[in-house]
Amino acid sequence: MSNNQKQNQGWVDLQINGYGGVDFNAPGLTVDAVKAVVRRLAADGTAAFLPTLVTGDPEMLIAIVRTIVAARKTDGECARRILGFFFEGPFISPVPGAVGTHPVEWVHPPDLALFDRFQDAAEGLVRMVNVAAEVPGMPEFVRTLVSRGVMVSLGHEMAATPAELEPCLAAGARAFTHLGNGLPNMIPRHDNVIFTALADDRATVMFIPDGHHLPDTILKVYLRAVPRERLVAVSDAQYPAGMPPGDYDVCGARARLEPNGLLWNPERKCLVGATTPMARMMELLQSRAGATPDDCRALGRENPLRLIGLTPDVLD
Question: What distance in Å separates the CA atoms of residue 67 and residue 82, rounded to the nearest whole number?
Answer without folding.
Answer: 12
